Amino acid sequence: MTCTDHYATNEIFDLFACQKCGFLFTQNVPEENEMGKYYESPNYISHTDTRKGLSNRLYHYIRHYMLSKKARLIKHKCGLEAGNLLDIGTGTGYFCNYMQKQGWKVAGVEKSKHARDFALKHFNLNISEPETLNEFKKKSFDVITLWHVMEHLHAINETWETISSLLKDKGILVIAVPNPSSFDAQYYKNIWAAYDVPRHIWHFTPSTIQQFGAKHGFILTERYPMPFDTFYISILSEKYKHGHFSFLKGIITGIKGSFATIIKKEQSSSMIYIFRKK
After folding, report:
1. The overall pTM is greater than 0.90
2. Which pLDDT value is given to residue 179?
3. DSSP 211
């Protein structure tokens, strides 16, 4: 499959799949030190606070709702009302700020200096650079989270090993990633917005992320759909088609995707996965 970087450069990248396990990945991704230009676009909403346009306003509204939902999920699954949490790929700091207000002791790491500066200015959060991950005390976190981050990581195997060393034996690892086996991914094919090449290097299905976790000593215990992502991704995908009424068409596809998710949750546009150590 061939996909276009609609966000920043309009460059074209190929997706390849392993013939044995089906793991899907972006081919010929730029080196990590060359990726900056793909993230610094003012359109890259994960690292900005823009509310211009209907899609961006929708993103912020849903993010506010999802913060409370994420907090409830974490408390329920780890059995703690408060504890030590590490958020990898913190972005502009909304999640860390919310959890800190809930009484959690929070540490965050983020690659983008712009995003770190935003978190410091707006939330007074001192977010670390990713290079400091190895400086944290071993087995010191009850929860480690990566919200739409795992798909971005160049050093993905090394990151899993680091996570394993930092997570307590009874802790939980929470990962949210897009799902290329979803209803909307199958519908939009190569213009599915969540392929987001080349920023998204890895494209995990429920099956392949379970295999990847097992490779690093983790057991996938639960998985949950992220229903709102279906609407947001569908609206963006329609926008990339450059047709008329993209918002309305995206909503219609989102509704169809929601019904598909009710029948089979693995049809969700994005999934949350809960891992525990073996």
Report:
1. yes
2. 98
3. H
